[in-house]
Design brief:
Among the domains are: about 160 residues, no CATH class; about 170 residues, EAL domain (TIM Barrel, Alpha-Beta Barrel). By secondary structure, it is α/β, with parallel strands linked by helices. It has an eight-stranded mixed beta barrel, surrounded by five helices.
Amino acid sequence: MFSSKRYRYSFFREITFFTGIKRHLACVAFVLGIALLSSLTSSFFSRLQLTYIISSDSDDLLNLHSMKINRFPDLLASLSQNFRFDCGISDINLLESVTYNDYVIKQVAIKTSGNQRCSSFPRTNIKLQVIPLVENYDENVSLWVAFDSEKKQNLLVAEWHEERGSLWVYMEPIVSDTIRNKYCSDCVLSAITSSQNPEVAFWRGDAALFSSKPLFSAQLADGLRVDTYVKAELLELYRDQLYLPLFIMGLTLGVLCVVSCQALARRKMSLHSLVERGLVEKEFVPYYQPIVDVSNNTLYGCEMLARWHRPDQDVISPMEFIPYVEKSGQILAITDQLIEKLTNEMTKLNWHATKQVISINVVPEQLESQVIMENTLRILQRSEIQLNQIAFEVTERKQFTDLAMASDVIEQLRQKGVDVKLDDAGTGYGGFSYIQQLNIRSLKIDKMFVENIGTTDIKLSLLNSIIAFGKEAGMEMIAEGVETEEQSKYLAEQGVYLQQGYFFGKPMIFKDFAYYCKSIQPKPKFEPTMRLV
């Protein structure tokens, strides 16, 4: 026997061990997978990074060209006034002076009305061919692109023309050359095109890059456009630089995901086990909140609310555990435990000798199962409390999955004297369709509508609509969350006499609720305030 037990223990330990290894291997595989996926995005992020860097650097090029091009008419007009347009000594000296003093200008040339030509570099052997880029940029200005015979040089040219002749200014491509060689040798190309002549372009670099998609584009004045291209080698360089950082970032992200998931799983497992222990130790206790009939200040009944009393700790709010236990299914065992305590306590209060009602919260799952409801009713029937003193409140914030079965269960409960109320009316899935499909005859008006009494919020009109609906349907209505005298009076004037909230009493342990029941005193029947019309 001992050997058999030891074998089983060893066997289960091995299973746990291998399961743990598989879980750890799965976590490692997940982390590595996230890291690899992150590194595979290096192409995308390298292009994004390079686009940002080059677009920032290109601002210099755009600003320079925009400034020069936009000022061409005024600058050329001012410059032309200093020339005689006769290619004499005065014009030659001025041509050389302008070229020497302006680092942006590569060359200045004049063409007289008699077709005589002169230049700031009269001895140059380079022959340039000019093609129009924008022929009518201004009344006296046009833009050209100048090529040499082998198309190795490419310059932007501005022309000023008048009756005396023409003035040609060849721009030095300083900024574009700087960008072209900033990252690697001849790997960036900037091209300026015009909507007038889209087949003509001014560029510095390898023209073969025109076959690729531009990395960065911007629009200049008067239909001019700048496109920036890069070689694949530059993108690969940035991609390689980003591969390792992205891999490390992916590892970090994967580890964070695994740690977070494990922490969440441990929390759920921990909460689940704590709830199970709480059920064994009977730590869940009922609290009671009074429901008052304000028409005569009598106690209509109460609503039972769940609280969790853990040893040496404060009372745990239902919002901290009810959502979880509803999903885990532990709410069924908690409800049964609370009902057992409720019946014992209310019997001591001789509740069965009154006609007062106890409302118990249930979830749709409980009303969709005859077995669950029969088990709950058996617990109630072991006490002296009458079934017609019990009401189940089902919130429409949780969706029914089998309305037909729920309708049958509710009808059987009604035949035994148990009422079913629609809680949080108007706030959830079914709306008032549940009232028709489930034949519900009682509803509780949610606090979110009541708290708008005395305001201009649109929910106040919704409250009035719910009350009007309830009256028309002859339904019993209970208003929750009543906290002020103004709210209580408003509801009473609308015919809603059954009220619940802190204005009458907060949820209490049984001892305090027993004292409350003895202290409440009836008063004459409420009479609505008469209004003169």
